Amino acid sequence: MRVRTVFKRWPIVFLFGAALLLSGCFKVNARIEVRSDGSGQWLIGWAMSRDLRRWSSSSEGGQLNTAELLKRFQGEGISLTAQDLKVREWTEGEFVWQEVILPFRNPEELNVLAMRSELFESFELKRQPGVVRDRFELRAVLKSIEKITQPAASQRSTSMLTLDPSLWFEMQVQVTMPGEVIQTNGSFLKEQPNAVIWRPLAKQDMALEMISESSNPTGILLLILFVGIVAGGGVAAYRVLGKPWLAKRAATRAPDSTSTGEAQDEA
Predict the structure, then answer these.
(1) In 58-217, where do the E strands start and end?
(2) Is 128 in contact with 134 (CB distance < 8 Å)?
(3) 8 close to 151: Cβ distance less than 8 angstroms
(4) Alpha carbon of 198 to those of 12, 144, 163, 195, 205: distances in Å?
(5) What phi and psi values does residue 83 have, to the nearest 5 degrees?
(6) DSSP conformation class of 78
(7) Contact by Cβ (8 Å): 100, 41
(8) How does pLDDT run across 46-98, given as a tens digit for each residue?
(9) What pLDDT digit, counting tens, does each position of 138-159 carry?
């Protein structure tokens, strides 16, 4: 979700300029979890320090606006309802977190959601089904911190334009793929080997690349069924054609052996 959308709920924060901003911090955590069938969920969380939270509470921005979220993400290719959105809030140390969970049914829906979040210059996840293993390929371009934050800053306070956003803004993108990650330019999570994270650069866009392979239970089952059918067909063909042919061949050989035995007796 674009920071501008989140910041709309706390406009008073930007009136205090750099001094207030440096006393706290704003964090964004975007987690994409992809299942083996291509569906999954996108968890977008953001946190404010307690100091900033106290100021924001006076701006009537403490609650998430689900209607605004639906308006942003709905559209062609997306069929979200209020019941589909899951929202939660919790406190972690000095930060108050809010998070919304957006489900997606396939990679195509995720691609649309990602572009509508306006965090990416480009985003494409592909699933290539195989007989035994499926391949997932993610190629995206994550916007710089400057691009993500400057539209919100320019709309709220000119004093923010001269302030380095990396001093007060932190962001992390985490993608979890099914199976084994065989190629990426991100950093692996120690506790989750199929999860990779990236952190945007201050002034430059960042290319994201991730490829994983996972077993295809449906393909494996179909392969087993195919082998079973072929083997069963071979056995059936042997019983129908092979046995009569062998019996006929044995019958044609039997008189020769009998006549040979009679010739030896006469001698």
Answers:
(1) 86-92, 95-104, 120-128, 133-142, 169-176, 180-184, 187-189, 192-198, 206-215
(2) yes
(3) no
(4) 31, 12, 23, 11, 12
(5) -70, -25
(6) B
(7) no
(8) 998 877 777 665 544 455 666 777 777 777 667 777 778 888 999 998 888 99
(9) 999 999 999 998 765 454 444 4
